[in-house]
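Hey team,

Filing this mostly as a record. A colleague (T.K.) asked me to run one chain through the structure pipeline before their review meeting, and I want the input and output archived in the tracker in case anyone asks later how it was produced. No errors, nothing strange. Just documentation.

Input sequence:
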Amino acid sequence: MTRRVKHQLLAFAASAAVVAASSAAYAHHSFAMFDADSKVTVEGIVKEFQWTNPHAWIMLTVANTEGKPEPWAIELNGPSGLVRQGWKPKTLTPGMPVTLTIHRSRTEPMAASSWPSSFRTER
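Output structure:
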C-alpha cells in the first residue's frame, strides 16, 4: 500500500469518526422526547436543585388534580448555559415555591423540560 493510499484511508477513518461522534452528540441534544408543540404551567415546591452536567435538574413537588403531592423531574440546560442566563448553583433552594412553563415528556408523566421555556420564583 502506497503512502498516499495510507493517508487517504487515515483521512477517511478520521472523517468517519467525526461524523459518528457528531451524530451521537446531536442525538443527545434532541428535544424529541418532549412535546415541543404544547406548554404546561406547573406550580410547585423545589425539593432539590441538581447543578450537574450534562443537564441541571429541578426536583419539584407538584399537587395533582386531587391536591396530593407528586414528584416531578424538570430537565434544564447544562450549568454552563445556565450561568450565561444568570443562574447560579443556589438560584433554587429546597422549599422555594416556583412556577414553570414546561414541555412535558412524551413518555414519562411527571417529567418535563423547562428549556427553552420560562421560569418564575414566588419570592
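Quick notes for T.K.: Residues 18-27 have pLDDT under 50 and may be disordered. The two ends are 70 Å apart (CA to CA).
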